[in-house]
Amino acid sequence: MTATHSVTTVEANPADGAGSKLGWAAADSWTMTRRELAHWARQPVQVVVGLVFPVMMLLMFGYLIGGGKGIEGDFKSYLLPGMLTMTMAFGLEATMLSVTQDLGKGVIDRFRSMPMNSGAVLVGRSIADMLQSVVGLTVMIGVGYAIGWRWSNGFASFMGAVGLLLLLRFAMLWIGIHLAMVAGKPELVQAVQILVWPVAFLSNAIASPESMPSWLGAVVEWNPMSATATAVRDLFGNPGAVGHSWAATHAEFLALAWPVALVAVFFPLAVKRFRDLSR
Amino acid sequence: MSDLDPAIVVEGLRKRYKDKPALDGLDLTVRAGTVLGILGPNGAGKTTAVRIMSTLLRPDEGRVEVAGIDVRTRADEVRSRIGLLGQNAAVDEELSGRQNLEMFGRLHHLGARRAGTRADELLAQFGLTDTGSKAIKQYSGGMRRRLDLAASLISRPQVLFLDEPTTGLDPRGRTEVWNAVRSLVGGGTTVLLTTQYLEEADQLADRIAVINHGRVIAEGTADELKSRTGGDRIDVVLHDTAQLDRAASVMPGDVHQDRDRRMVSASISNRMAALTETVQALQAAGIDAEDIAVRRPTLDEVFMQLTKEEAA
Ligand SMILES: Nc1ncnc2c1ncn2[C@@H]1O[C@H](COP(=O)(O)OP(=O)(O)OP(=O)(O)O)[C@@H](O)[C@H]1O
Ligand SMILES: [Mg+2]
């Protein structure tokens, strides 16, 4: 440690216009995304476990538990869209866990003391989580295909279904980030990890609302997860639960509206929280 | 900014946590190119002050300018001119040292290529080249601290904040950090460092501010502070408590006895002369000492003295 320093402050952004600001925001977000990708590269086991868990659930429900309650026809065709929906929804806890862990780390202080874009940490997280979800969906659809699931409505509908699934994941992502910042304690993450199960079962992801008491059926039909699962089944051309309520017959609309509304609420809240962190 | 302008100005800084004040009207001025050491016990408000000056925390009241820029209203401009070594490590434990430095370089908007060369430069400077590709969580505490310091130097900051930079380091690590700070200051960087060690402030700082309960209670050069607190001390440990009184009576200077530790100590002005005089006086009185040591006043002593003055 003998090198001498010259104090030529590195002039960061010579042109400080609005355009360059946006450019730096994008560059910073990409740097933060790369950070997450580097984490994966250093913890491949964790990444694989994250991918294998939903596949395991799919196989368990598909083979061990067998036909769902009140479902006519091929259960696997009913199950796969439900499991895809559930996997996207459970992304909430994954995001919440990583943000909670991240906020507890000193490195966040360094980020906040640097001239970087203040939202980049969150945007980087969301890009990385979305990439992870794309990989996760691909794996699950591949496994689904291998065990006999098929879709029958052509490529455009297929992509539409995938789009709705990722939209749900995106909404869950911002809820997860916000929850982590409001109450980011490991105990709370655990509570959420448990609570997502009853919420998932209170949807038509796995069981059909037909088999439930009517008041519960109504709750289930309005669950955002049900909207996505139903819409995805329609788009894939897979058998769905036959409901007659407004929510059941407008599933496509709700599968768009629910996540968009959730993002509209939680995205600004989360960004504001992060800006105000420890102020 | 000319060399005579202050690099840091803090005026009437206040910050409360719940109803307990952490900073209670703190005032500081640091001239560009100099080192200010902030000395204070646990809970004095050192970290709170550093976090406010480095834009991490908003003050309740008061004015803070770093490099002539208001930290509240123009935080981003301040951020591109400062480096921060926080009290706790601020690096990504999962990534390697090199990955960390490169990432911080990119976030300082050096561009991908310069971020890479700067990372290698700093790894070499801090003797971390060999371990550069290991994850930080496998680093020793000292290595982690050095990497953290390297990370705070990425942008060649005008003003550097160091919050207890050497706490937890071994003597060699401490000397290394001290040398790094000296070479930075040689290059014109302004440094504000907090410490609990008088020795450290003594080694590095041009001026020292002693703070307690969120306020400056004394400020000056190391010599000025030491003379206010009675300068160096000599400690004599005896074999036999019975001889304490006799030893105290023959020793020169303002003498205190500590029965529990079988120790007599006196404040002194000239180290060599005091040592010779004391040894001669004890020998003449036929008193055998177990241990004799000349030392700087401890932070405790400076502190007790200063708080005594404050109360008076
Ligand atoms: N986040 C916080 N919430 C509540 N109180 C706090 C918080 N941070 C600091 N304090 C309180 O503010 C006071 C000053 O704390 P600070 O960390 O600035 O002291 P310090 O001089 O850095 O101490 P140390 O030498 O232990 O690092 C202390 O009484 C501390 O308990
Ligand atoms: Mg502290």
The gist of it:
With 279 residues, chain A is mainly alpha-helical. Helix content of chain A is 74%, strand content 0%.
Can you offer a commentary on this structure?
The complex is a heterodimer of chains A (279) and B (312). Chain A has one domain. Chain A is mainly α and 279 residues long. Chain A is built from 11 helices and no strands. In chain A, helix 2 crosses helix 5 (120-146) and helix 3 (75-103) runs antiparallel to helix 5 (120-146). Chain B has 312 residues and is α/β, with parallel strands linked by helices. Chain B has 2 domains: 6-226, Rossmann fold (3-Layer(aba) Sandwich), CATH 3.40.50.300; 231-296, 2-Layer Sandwich (Alpha-Beta Plaits). Chain B is 37% helix and 28% strand. Chain B is built from 11 helices and 14 strands. Chain B has helices spanning 46-53, 75-79, 97-107, 112-125, 141-152, 171-186, 198-204, 222-228, 244-250, 271-284, 299-311, and strands at 6-17, 20-31, 35-39, 61-66, 69-70, 82-85, 159-163, 190-195, 207-212, 215-220, 233-238, 254-258, 263-267, 289-295. Chain B has a 6-stranded mixed β-sheet with strand order 6-7-8-3-9-10, with helices on both faces. In chain B, strands 2-1-4-5 form a 4-stranded antiparallel β-sheet. In chain B, helix 3 packs across helix 4 (112-125). Chain B is globular. Chain B starts with 5 loop residues before the first strand and ends with a helix. Classes of the chains: A mainly alpha (279), B alpha/beta (312). Chain A: Keywords: Antibiotic resistance, Cell membrane, Membrane, Transmembrane, Transmembrane helix, Transport. Chain A: Residues 45-277 form the ABC transmembrane type-2 domain. Chain A: This is Transport permease protein.
